[in-house]
Each structure stands twice: as structure tokens, then as C-alpha cells.
Write a structure and sequence with these properties.
Helix content is 72%, strand content 0%. The protein is mostly helical and 182 residues long. The protein has a single domain, classed as Hypothetical protein af1432. It is globular, with a radius of gyration of 16 Å. The N and C termini lie far apart (53 Å).
Length: 182
Amino acid sequence: MSNQLETTYRPLLEAVAFAARAHRDQWRKDKETPYCSHPFRVCLIAREVFGITDPRVLAAAVLHDTIEDTTTDFDDLEEKFGADIAAWVAALSKDKRQRDAKREPAYMRQFTAAPWPVHVCKLGDIFDNLMDSVHTKPEQQAKTLKRSQTYLAALKPKLSARTRKPFAIVSRLLAEIGTKQG
């Protein structure tokens, strides 16, 4: 039994440490909060708010910004965490070599075409960004709301049994925050 627990949970715990190291010199938009709090929160949201217990999905949640926002590449993740987790994180990563006008539509096609674990991680990311938006200026809050609405609209036709509950939760949060700000 002990060996099975280690085999099951070590990758998730290693992913948390990996994400902390990868994001170590980054800060949230408030310039006070270490950035690694965001991927940790996305993982907690997936687990505690959405009820996701699969350690591989939780590992992808905590690693979701490593390719996009650090020097980590697909090969690094594949070597340490396997092909599935690396592919899920890649699907959650924007290609910053492109201008925003091309990058965003390509990103939405990419993550919406991906499997349910990617959708759950993206919904956790949206949930956390909405919750964190209270610490930003009104114009940044409005941008977060608009982008969240766009992402939810793109995901809605792609919902599966595993993503309906997280989608409903994030939609409710968006409505609550939108009502407060509107």
C-alpha cells in the first residue's frame, strides 16, 4: 500500500515543487504576492471547488503556466511528468511569439479542442483570475471579466460530463462578480 501511495502522489508533490521553482522570481499583478500562489490556487480550486481528485489532473493544474510563463518547455515536463501532463500543459499555453490578435484565437481553438483535464484546469485558472481581480485596478478587472466571458463562451459547446459542474461554478462566479462591478 505504501508504495502505491508514493507512486500515486509523488508526481503531484513534485509538480508543486517544480512550479514553485519555475515561478520563483515572478509576482502577481499586485506586485506583492508571489506568482506561484496562482498555480497552487488553481490546483486547490480544481480539488476543493470542482471536486477533482485525479492527481495527474491536479499536477497539470499546478503546472499550467510553466511553459507559457517560465523557461520550462514541453520536453522538461514530458521527462518529469509524462506525455499526458506535458500535452495538457502545452494545450494551456499561449504562443507568446504571436501578437495578441492572432494568439488569442489560436489559444482558444487549442484549449477547447483539448480533453476534459485541460478544460478543468482552464476553468480553475479562470476562477482564480476572477477571484484575484479584486486586487487589480477597475480597467484590469473589466479586462479579466471580458476575457473570462470569452473563454466560457468558447468552452460551452465543448462541455463533457466531467466539465459541466466546474463550468457552472465558474459561470456563477462570473455572474456574481459582474453584478458587483456592473
